[in-house]
Write a structure and sequence with these properties.
CATH topology of the domain at 232-348: Flavocytochrome C3, Chain A, domain 1
Strand content: 15-25%
Number of strands: 22
Bound molecules: flavin-adenine dinucleotide, succinic acid
């Protein structure tokens, strides 16, 4: 396959970009499962943007910077905040239905925000956004979406037969066509990674099963700079279930918007505790709330804490949080009368592939947008509801950057461009599965998968220390070697590819955490409890030469 623009991923980053790039050429979106299956589809709280008369850009910027604990790139923050309202208007124009009252957007509140500024669609914001984007794309003849195509690796100069091109460039990908079980090469003028996050490296996560960090791992293998992987955000309130019914690790989220509406965290015995940790109590930023809950649970030995919604009122709960109400009821809890048992769960990766303000990576013709990236927006801790916003703003930045290049040098439609793409296609090695065979040992994959999640949850969670990180490092290093040699001799399938990516991402998280000998934002080290601006007021950047 050959295309002008190849987008990997069909969440908000990929789809919003596809719509814009379709003005410039043919867009192919590939996605590893059904097109709506993404973190985006599960987003609850909403999208932060300045719309209220008592709010302004400077306040949103200040809240984001404070939450990011000194590591945000202010220029990137300013960019998402000031472009926010325009990007929201675009979503409304394509038919997204946000919650309104008398024609005005209803603005919710979440932790760390000093004003009400969360635009939402009840408690199913992501589903509504995904629906609207997919509906718009269905009517666009320049966009094709291939479901069940799994991106395996980026094509770089090492995949060329004739090494007549400079290294440091991306030509497309190898992708597993899951239905035919064949690996195909897809060559593109520009490739965009929009593969989302990596919550599945942990035992309990709000992320669906697609979130295995594939884009980060692919980028790393191809030579991209990976930054700030130690900053994994744990959402304070996921629904606690003593016995879970699923065999993968996604847990149900209880949106922070519920606390924004007045719900309060309490112990099982009904005692408030957040006043001991922060003046903003239950609405403090997530790193503080998640650590406080972790501490309370360790002190009491209780397996969960509770969220009390009684101050919100039954009618309002049912109207504004219908999905959460319904879910809890299905678990036997009427949240208009009873408290919800909650625990923290891995939620968001603040780190990822480093990009500049135009969404460019350090590989030519490779861009990235959304949770797969580290753009400088989130620093050491993401402010709630800033990620859907970041994805839209940076996808727009990629479009504008490519538009600028096309205007300067409109090669895309020329014959020269077409023959160049064909030449590259012919010059890329076909996928070679010589020396590999089907294995009888698939059980090893599920064991390794479980082991990765256990190690990450036991030793690289909300509270860390050097001894635990070193133990995790030794084990993950060994497992990485094992999986590498298993991969070399085995015919690929989705489970194996995901395992290979998970182990690499876990390794990157551990390695980055070991490099940061201080506590900042989401990275809390018991043996380095203070922030150390003199030595660590900087991003943690890893390239593959550092991790042989
Ligand atoms: P995603 O939406 O995750 O999309 C990634 C896409 O890439 C998927 O289509 C996936 O199938 C595809 N993909 C991945 N790997 C491959 C591969 N190897 N080959 C092919 N395709 C691949 N943020 C907010 O701002 N506000 C909220 O209210 C909010 N609530 C949230 C609630 C939950 C439960 C969760 C899990 C997250 C929430 N977030 C929220 C975070 C936010 O949803 C994500 O950060 C955002 O949706 C990421 O968008 P994305 O397009 O980058 O990735
Ligand atoms: C939530 O609804 O609590 C999630 C918001 C976010 O992750 O930004």
């Amino acid at each position: 396959m050959k295309t002008d623009f190849l987008i990997i991923g069909s969440g908000i980053a990929g789809l919003s970009l596809a719509l814009k790039l379709s003005r410039l050429g043919k867009v192919l979106v590939i996605t590893k499962k059904l097109k709506a299956e993404s973190n985006t589809n599960y987003a609850q709280g909403g999208i932060a943007a300045v719309f209220s008369g008592n709010d302004n850009f400077e306040l949103h910027i200040a809240d984001t910077l404070e939450c990011g604990a000194g590591l945000c790139n202010e220029e990137a923050v300013r960019k998402i905040v000031t472009e926010g309202p325009e990007r929201i208007r675009e979503l409304i124009e394509i038919g997204t239905n946000f919650s309104k009252n008398n024609g005005e957007l209803i603005l919710g509140k979440e932790g760390g925000h000093s004003r009400n500024r969360i635009i939402h669609s009840n408690d199913l914001t992501g589903k509504e956004v995904e629906r609207a984007l997919l509906a718009k794309i269905a009517a666009n003849r320049n966009i094709k979406i291939h479901e069940y195509y799994f991106a395996v690796d980026l094509l770089t100069s090492k995949n060329l037969k004739k090494k007549n091109r400079k290294p440091g460039q991306c030509y497309g990908i190898y992708a597993l066509n899951v239905r035919s079980n064949k690996v195909e090469k897809i060559v593109s003028g520009r490739t965009i990674l929009a593969t989302g996050g990596a919550g599945q490296v942990y035992e309990h996560t709000t992320n669906p099963s697609i979130a295995t960090g594939d884009g980060i791992a692919m980028g790393f293998r191809a030579g991209c700079e990976i930054a700030n992987m130690e900053f994994i955000q744990f959402h304070p309130t996921s629904f606690f279930e003593a016995e879970r019914e699923t065999n993968y690790s996604q847990v149900f989220l209880i949106s922070e918007a519920v606390r924004g509406a007045g719900a309060v965290l309490k112990t099982i015995k009904g005692k408030e505790f957040m006043q001991k940790y922060d003046r903003r109590k239950s609405l403090a930023p997530r790193d503080i709330v998640a650590r406080a809950i972790d501490n309370e649970m360790k002190k009491s030995g209780d397996p969960y804490v509770c969220l009390d919604l009684k101050d919100i009122g039954g009618e309002r709960i049912k109207k504004e949080f219908p999905n959460i109400y319904k879910y809890c009821l299905s678990k036997g809890i009427d949240i208009t009368k009873e408290m919800i048992p909650v625990v923290p769960a891995a939620h968001y990766s603040c780190g990822g592939i480093k990009t500049d303000l135009e969404g460019k990576t350090n590989l030519k013709n490779l861009y990235a947008s959304g949770e797969v990236t580290m753009t400088g927006v989130h620093g050491a801790n993401r402010l709630a509801s800033n990620s859907l916003l970041e994805a839209m703003v940076f996808s727009n930045a990629i479009y504008e950057s490519i538009l600028k290049q096309e205007k300067k040098n409109p090669v895309k439609k020329s014959l020269k461009y077409k023959s160049e793409i064909r030449e590259i296609y012919d010059n890329i090695y076909d996928w070679n599965e010589e020396g590999t065979e089907n294995t009888e040992e698939w059980i090893l994959i599920s064991h390794n998968n479980r082991e990765i999640k256990e190690i990450m949850s036991d030793y690289v969670g909300i509270v860390r220390n050097t001894i635990r990180l070193e133990r995790a490092y030794r084990r993950m290093k060994m497992m990485r070697e094992e999986i590498r040699s298993f991969y070399k001799k085995t015919k690929v399938n989705v489970e194996l590819l995901e395992l290979r990516n998970l182990v690499n991402v876990a390794y990157l998280i551990i390695y980055s955490a070991m490099m940061r000998k201080e506590s900042r934002g989401l990275h809390y080290m018991l043996d380095y409890p203070a922030k150390d601006d003199r030595n660590f007021h900087k991003d943690t950047i890893i390239v593959k030469e550092m991790l042989k």
